Amino acid sequence: MSRDYKTDKKANRKRHTTGLLLLCLLFIIVGVGIMFGLDNTRKGLVEDCENALLWEVQLTAREVSDDIENRFVALETIQEMIVQTCGIGPEAMKTLAATKIRYGMDYLAMIDTEYTYYDNEGDIIPDTQTVNIEAAMAGKRVVARSVDEVSGDGVVFMVPCKDGEEIVGVLAAKTSREKLLDKLSVKPQEGTDLVVDTYGNVVLMADDFGNYLEGMSWDEFSQKGDSWKPKKEFDEEMQLKGCAVAAAMSKAGKEIYFAAAKVDGYEDFFVVRLTSSEVVEKEIRQSMDRIYFLMVIMAISIGGVVASALVVCVRNRVEIYNTAYVDQLTGLPSKAKHKMDAQELINKNEDKYAYVTFDVDNFKYVNEMFGYEYGNKVLNHIAKNIREFVKNGELCARIASDNFAMLLIDEGTQKELETRIYDLFKKITEPGKPGEVLNICSLNFSCGVYRIDGKQDINVVRANANLARTENKKSVIDEIIFYDEKLKARRVEEKELEYEAEGALINGDFLVYFQPKYDVETEKIIGAEALVRWLHPVKGMLSPALFVPLFEGNGFITEIDLYVLDRVCELIESWIKNGVPPICISVNLSRIHLYERDLVKRLSEVVSRHNVPPEYIEFELTESAFYEETENLLRIMAEIKASGFRLSMDDFGSGYSSLNLLRRLPVDVLKLDKVFLEDCEEGEDETRGKRIVTHVISMAKDLKMEVLAEGVETSNQKEFLQNAKCDMIQGYYYARPMPINEFELLYKSDKSL
Known about the structure:
By secondary structure, the chain is α+β, with helices and mostly antiparallel strands. It is 50% helix and 22% strand. It folds into four domains: 2-36; 41-299, PAS domain (Beta-Lactamase); 335-483, Alpha-Beta Plaits; 493-749, TIM Barrel, CATH 3.20.20.450. The strands form four sheets. It has an eight-stranded mixed β-barrel with strand order 17-18-20-21-22-23-24-25, surrounded by five helices. The chain has a six-stranded antiparallel sheet with strand order 3-2-1-6-5-4, sandwiched between helices. Residues 1-9 have low confidence and may be disordered.
């Protein structure tokens, strides 16, 4: 066995030596051939430069296509929102101004069916009928160049405004030329770009375009087709492949290399890229110099250097490919590779597909609790199961962090697809052998699915699936969310509320309600909690559960909180002026405030403006606010206390508060969540529930905190809390939340006054 091995090894070495010698001999022959065929070599280098130019213009065309599509998708969302909320007319101009800022546009306008023009600057112009507006009014998307003295040089994008299936106007947005130029050319070599339509009209042109034509305008250049070479082949390539490259002569007789590519999805446009002969000659000279250098190296070091160069070349190509198209942690395809492959499969339209995207709920806590090395093991474990899960003709990828995506064949029912995805999650989370990854933590997933119908843009597909996934995160039920029209309508409704919120705050549509707090012993009102309601002019009274999470997501909740604080201070100020003994009113403080550097200053300014002593204001922070940013939270709480305000922790017991953290918190009041009282009702856990509440109250008092029980609804609960030495009670047993005037009447009629 050993002798055979040595014999084989010797034979392999001999074959390798022979192969290297033959390879060296081959390169010598090729080198001699190159010496006699430099002309052909030059032609090949010119062709390589032309291919590089063609590749660049195709990349630019894809960038332009994506940019146009993204702008149209944004405009269609805007028009749908405006048509549904305020219609096309003068009332829409304020919304146009706000929308222009929100979406970063330079100019935004709407045109009604009478061709009256309303823009974000407040201008109303009658009779604005143009060819482009006519086209958009006929249901087409329009892109065109626009140059005027007010908004300068740029590109206008138009979409029809629809009320159902009826076209009721046109929405137009203009973006400056400077912003759009960023989309032109990846520029790995010198050159210049422009975008033209099929009629020869220039839509967008780089600043240096004229330099390459040496004084010739685009119209002159494009009309001198007889100077292009070869013109016939160029036209055939454009017709067949949508892209082509050719050479042309400038006015001064210099050669210009010229490439064009159609913009995918917008066949009326194509991108043109020019580069001068000097650039190509420079590339050729550099290439020829490298050829001579390599010939010298081959003559000196023959096969060894050549063989090493081949190995390095292959390795570099593999590394470049892996860097661009392979996720470095899991080995799954990267986001870029996945998008290209998914778009190709969808375009083939040979199978029905569903796009699935999911992530791990609260994955950052896995990293924080067990370390990033363990978190990486979890991600690799998920990737391994996904790789085994997908079938031939299906795709998978790691998009970012703990976010994964799959393109699955979808030939069955929704229930069958749902069951299949659940099987994957079950496989990922099932316990393994001792010592394996998931034996020390459990995982939950948020998953969204979009069932693809025909050919669609991958960006739209991913956006719909991600919308369903984010909707999943709002649900307390562990389920897979499928994208549907109801989900889209719900998102539109949320967008409407977002756009209406600022106006509603100005108009006073947000109402402040008060829920009294009662002393347990005397059963007198000793405080109240300020709550917010939204009296919508169309939809009526809206529950905070509908708009508070939405405003926490976009940050507007901070304005709501300050508005409530202002109304509370108005009330206390009026009491002080009229001789009514003031009581402490608590105001909810969203965790979004924790990211404001000047929070305490803003709070103090509101209170000082009404001359209200700060001890009559109590700020409530929910227990969930203490899950993250702990040190920052403790700093802000200390500043609030130092300013004279009171603090309370709301919903204590609804989450997983750390007792060690509770020891460090400078809170005055601990509010027991109503879940505690539910455990104190009759049942097998009644005794244990009461003991827990009693000990929590005792612990809080030891920490010098007052205790308030919320959600008290029965006399049994009230009597138990009295016996447990609870300080305050809040709940329907005494009073529901009520408008300010009703609360004032109740408070002033209280016998304690």
